[in-house]
Every structure is written in structure tokens, then in C-alpha cells.
Amino acid sequence: MTKFADLNLSPALLKAVNRMGFEEATPIQAKTIPLSMAGKDLIGQAQTGTGKTAAFGIPLIEKIDVKSPHVQGIIIAPTRELAIQVSEELYKIGMDARVKVLAVYGGSDIQRQIRALKKGPHIIVGTPGRILDHINRRTLKLGNVHTLILDEADEMLNMGFIEDIEAILETVPEDRQTLLFSATMPEPIRRIAERFMKSPETVRVQAKEMTVPLIEQFFVKVPEKEKFDVLARLIDVQSPELAIVFGRTKRRVDELSNALTLRGYTAEGIHGDLSQAKRLSVLKKFKEGKVDVLVATDVAARGLDISGVTHVYNYDIPQDPESYVHRIGRTGRAGKEGMAITFVSPREMGYLRIVEQTTKKRMQPMRPPTWDEALEGQQRITMEKLEETIKEGNLDEYKAVANELLKEHEDALTVIAAALKVLTKEPDKTPVHITEERPLPQKRDNYKGSGGHGHGGGGNRNRRGKSGQQPYKGNRKPQRRPSGRRP
Length: 487
Ligand SMILES: Nc1ncnc2c1ncn2[C@@H]1O[C@H](COP(=O)(O)OP(=O)(O)OP(=O)(O)O)[C@@H](O)[C@H]1O
Ligand SMILES: [Mg+2]
Prior knowledge:
Strand order of the largest sheet: 5-6-4-7-8-3-9
Oligomer: single chain
Shape: globular
Bound molecules: adenosine-5'-triphosphate, magnesium ion
InterPro entries: DEAD/DEAH_box_helicase_dom, DEAD/DEAH_RhlB, DEAD_box_RNA_helicases, DeaD_dimer, DEAD_helicase_CshA, Helicase_ATP-bd, Helicase_C-like, P-loop_NTPase
Region (Disordered): 429-487
Number of helices: 17
GO molecular function: ATP binding; hydrolase activity; RNA helicase activity; RNA strand annealing activity
Mean pLDDT: 90
Distance between the termini: 31 Å
Radius of gyration: 25 Å
Low-confidence stretches: 445-487
Domain Helicase C-terminal: 214-374
Number of strands: 16
Domain DEAD-box RNA helicase Q: 2-30
């Protein structure tokens, strides 16, 4: 175990890290911070939720000359929300050292960003498009940058972003230090990455599996038509504290969040067609617990660190294994437990196997809950609420009414049963409309494109028995937060 005090950090940094409640460095931090402080280029790969942000953030902050008014470090992230989050974490790390961090991202007032850029930020965190925009307007100059970091590096070097990244790189001095971080790093992308780096060192936190062991992984084989009812029942039975449901398309996300709302859940959707203000407000409500279920496209799959996410549901199996790893990694962060449930239509089973090959982890089959089980789940929640209320006391104003009721109806059992029924959110059968998505094209287990952990050694995995269906874990997360409040 490595203490931050053993990492040669300045007093200001140690103070910040302490205040953030970090006691020990995580393995990726312990391995990369010294290398990074020594100026090495590196590719850091470690599981989701294991502190990669601070792993690149701490050494970067250490290297900032706060007396200089120039931008010295630039971090590029694939989504606006992630850019904001990373800038917030860096702000916290650099607060005592008085390092100025600024996030620049699309969909928000560019004039305001330009004014902020004039105030001499030391570190810029941004999305590629907006960074380029500022470079072209000459409102952002990267001539004094000594450190460039790609968070979610494999995504940033993927087809959609590569040109922007190349254009940005052209304006950054060549003798810079380049750091790449991600939970996944497919081999072809690593090769692209090395073109931008000087004899980079690869630091991989060796784990048996690419996913976090604290995330229990299940799959439910379910025909497209039945997916929604199964989702609703699973939520009823498992009563997640906060849940993210991933859908394949924007339409899917809209339909699912509407349908969940119709059935009485507090759900909202987030995807790239929404205004930035809306995206941020949905996320804020989710973080505050005012929304229990966030329905999202992959725009929310990478990097977002939201505490309290206990369940991730893949309404549609993701097309590639990396996307799976990042999606389920929204739970089970920083040492907490989580559960991931992936829906697979019978024709898409090939994709499931491909995911398993990459992650080196088998998903356990889960049987969809029945209506009765969903009801039981909800009744349990009511009982828990009741018990809590009894414990809290303060019931005098209700006892007179209770007495009246008991006088009218001799049978106390009936009275209590009725009260329970009123309080329970019964599994709902309100009809909803979800457009059927076509299954992904059929695929056999011959996927070779991904990994970085090597492929093909599938022979020694446990065989999954046909009857090995596991019950969902109905009793794991007993308390559901009263909606709207969060401890
Ligand atoms: N040393 C530490 N001790 C305790 N908590 C930490 C430590 N380092 C980071 N954390 C916290 O762990 C959480 C996850 O960190 P972070 O978001 O950096 O993970 P990540 O590895 O980047 O994950 P992802 O691959 O999903 O982007 C954050 O809330 C962060 O503040
Ligand atoms: Mg991250």
C-alpha cells in the first residue's frame, strides 16, 4: 500500500489529497505518479473507478508554475460532462497550490469562456471541438503547454475524434509530455497512440479481469418485446439507490424514460440531442437523487463518477466490449459494490460471448422476475418505510385516527393490509410504447479487434450449466431512498 506521503508530493498537494479523503494511493496512482513526475510519456490502463483522474491530475498540478500566466497543461475528454467533472477534480487537487483550471466545452457560451481564458488559467480541460474552436479564434494558445493528457484515450483516438486531436497536437510543443489514460486500450488504438508519444511506458494495473470484481455481472436472455416489463420488474425487486439504464439510440432513451415515467418511476433521459443546459440539469437531478433512474446513451458511459449508482442496466447489449466495460463501470466505483444486468435478445448471444472474452469475466444468467416477485419487492420497501417511521416515532397526531379506524373495523389486519396497499407502488401494467430495435447483426465468437489483454484463451473458463440460472439478488440493497432526499 502506498501512502501519498511516500510519493514526494508538495505540502499543498498532500493537504488537498487529505482533504479529499484519499488515504492511500490506488494502484494506478502509485505506479504512474512517480513516472509522470519524472517526465515520462505513458499509457495508463486501470479498471473503471480506480482514480485515474487523480493519477494524471496530481503530477500535472505539481508541475504547474503558478506564477506564469500561460496555459501549461491541457486535458482532452470525449464528453462535456466529463470535461466538467475532470476540471472539478483538478480544481480540488490544485486548490491549495492555487492552480487555475478552466473547462471549455461546446454548448455553452463561448464569450464567457473567452473572458475566462483571458484570466490566465494554467490548465485547460475540454472537449476536442471547442478546444479547436478556441485555437482557431486565437483565444487559446498552447505554445507553453508542457503536458498533454487524453482522458479516455482510446475513445479520443477513435475514428470520430482523431482528426481533431491531430489538429490540436499540431499547436502543442513537440517536447511536451503526453499521458494517456483509460480503462480500455484496444491494440490497434495503442499503435496509433504511440505515434504521438516518445517511447511511452505502458502501465497496466494487472488484474485478472478487465472489469471491477466488486461489480456483480448478470445477463438476462429476453426477447425484445418483453424487455421493458422485465426492466420495470427488476427495478421493483432490486430497488436500486440510483440506476443507469443504457439504451442503444437516442429514440430508445427518450421512449424508455417516458415509459418509466408513465409507470411511476422518477426517470429522465440524457443524450447528445438535448441542449447542454438540459443535459446538465438532468445529471444534477440524478446526482441529487431527485431522479432515481437515468436513461442514457453511451454519452454517459465514459468517466462519469456519480456516487450512489448501485445498478447499471444494459437495456441493449453494447456493440463492442469496451463500451460494456465503461457502461458497467458507472457502478462499483472507489471500492463500492455494484450490480450490472445486461439484456440480451436470443439472437445477440454471440455479442455476449465476445464481451466475456474481452473482459475475461463470465456474466451469470439471471431469470427475469415475475409480477408477484416484483410486488413482493415493492411490499418489502413499504414495510421498511413503515419500520423506519415507527422508529422515528412522532406519531401522536396519527394515533387518534388510527384508533377511529380500529373502532370501525374490528379486524386490525384488514386495516394494516389496506394501509400497506395504499403505500405500495404496485407493479404497473400501464401500456407503454417502445419501438422495437433490430437486433445487432449476428456474430460468432471471432472478434479480434479489441483487448490489450490478449484473446483467444477461452478454453479454461467455467462452463455455464443450463440450469444454472441464478435468482436476482432481491434483498441486497434494502433501503430505497425516499425520493427527493439524499443523505
Ligand atoms: N486514492 C484514492 N482514495 C480514495 N478515493 C479515490 C482515490 N483516488 C480517487 N478516488 C475517488 O474515486 C472515484 C473514481 O475516480 P476516477 O473518476 O478518477 O476513476 P477512473 O479510474 O477515472 O474511472 P473511469 O475509468 O470510469 O473514468 C472518484 O470519486 C475519486 O475522487
Ligand atoms: Mg476517468
